[in-house]
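Lecture 7 notes: from sequence to structure.
We start with the chain below.
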Amino acid sequence: MVTFEFKNIFGGMAVLCGALALSGLNILAAQETYTLADLEKRAVERSYSVAAMVERQASFENKLAANRALALPEISTFYRYYQQGVDLDENLSSSHILSLRLSQDLVELIKVRRSKSREIRSEIEVARSQIESRRAKSLFDFRMQYLDVVEGERRSRSYQALVEKYEELLVIHKARYQHNEALLTAVLEAEAELLSYTGLLNYVETRIQKQKAFITASLALEPQQVVWEQRAEDLPDLVESYVLEAALHENADLQLHAARAEIEHWRANTARYNDIKLMPFVGLRVRGDSFSELGTGPEFGLRFSMPLAYFSARNRKIDQHKANERYWQLESEQKTLDIELNLSALFDRYRLTQAQIKHSEKVLQLHAEKLRIERSKSGKKVSESRTDPAILLAIEIAKLKVELTVQQKLNERTRIYYKILYRAGLSRTDGLQDGGGYSSQSTDGNTQALWVWRAAGILDSPRAQQRLLDTCHTQGVNRLFLSLNKRLLRSFSQDTTLHSFVADLHTAGVRVAALMGDPLWVHESNRQALLQNIEQFITDNFALPESSRLDAIHLDIEPQTLDEWPTSRVDLLDELATTITAVKATIEASGYKLALEVDLPLFFDKVDAGSFIKIIRAAD
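Predicted structure tokens for the same chain:
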């Protein structure tokens, strides 16, 4: 950046303006420009609905912090006054009694606070899901607005070309009409088409200007800062089964329903104890005018309270929250079906549009060839072989109209494409290449790995299996992590489809690992079930022919997704190390040679380096 400094501001401005005028520089050239990717990011960042939900998430985080403070004891004072005093065996003869007490509600501390914390964490998850949903909506809305402008400019150029051709055609028809009144119909038709496309051109140009003004104003930019990209959209191919797989993992509405069901679950737990008070206390009692043995000194006690209608009210509240939990679970199931149906319908439209584009492109090729032939004829010297200029213009007009149709279909395909991403809850297309699982990544220069989470769906479809094999070939995938759910583990020894598919992958040069994952496996109470599953898997795996055996066990346990992670990170990492050590010992005890692989986020090292090293050593 070049800066100028002048002692005389007026003289300086004159010199600067003169220099710019002489050099022909554009003042706006120094302004920052925004490409489509920049604009998409800015549109999401400036979304009021997203900002509002971010504030709501912050409020829940503050609520969670406030709930943690409930672990501190409660301090209270009690003042009692009796005008004449009370003469009892305890010698309560004072008129004034002041007590200072420090108490702790054990039910609140042990039972209620934990459930409330889980409930608030679920509310935070709801807010996060809504943030992602609103970000996706903001991105989708902006993309549609941007496409309106870009498509409008393309239509404007097509309409302009048609207007020019009809003007030429009208001149020819009018000249001929002067000598042949029978051509009046041709003149009127040309005038009608000219008026029609002139009107469309004016409408589109006006609409483009309004849309550009709206977009730039909403993004707080100057019109000159926005780059309207006119190139054709370079959109990676999408495969329906893998987009659906990604949708069921990433869709914000599904995550929202799951979080709301979790909220109701913890509210039901809270309702079991919410109205019970069990408060031991220690305090100091002071009497105003009596200092006998019981007059002034410490006091200890236990306060217990429970509403008379506790049991009936508690059961009703629990039933209420359980019903709400089932409601959100059923809503989640319905949403899953809706996603599948909507995506299936969108993919049908997408494929239909693709077919229409191919058909229109073939028609366009025919018109282009016809135009080439007629132009070739018109260039000949023999007058009898020359093409009538009106016919040549008619062919050019027909070709322009087909080009317009092709462009409209391309625009429609782009819109459907982005709608598919939006309905699937995706903002980007990373990992959605043809045939891949939705979370593929390269681990180094020689290894291309692919995680396949919904293996059951692929095994049920020979076409999906072939697509995955094709993808492994075209994308150079040589490591595949195949998720084995409970059903696949139970039927592993008899699942001939799975055995055959693994053999096909081996033939294609792909190493296959059994992908297993559940965050609850870190806990000792669940560890034995995991080890039993692994023992059975090893036995079944090595009973198969070598070509059908899986090559490794790949664990993706993810303790960071547990509710207790924020407060028990180090303990959970220690438990993870213990679990991995136990799995490794189970594999070694089997006597078979089977590799153990573990997914570990790099941030574990920052949580606790010692625990991270333990995990590395356990998996080594």
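Points to note: The CA atoms of residues 169 and 273 lie 87 Å apart. The chain is about 60% helix and 10% strand.
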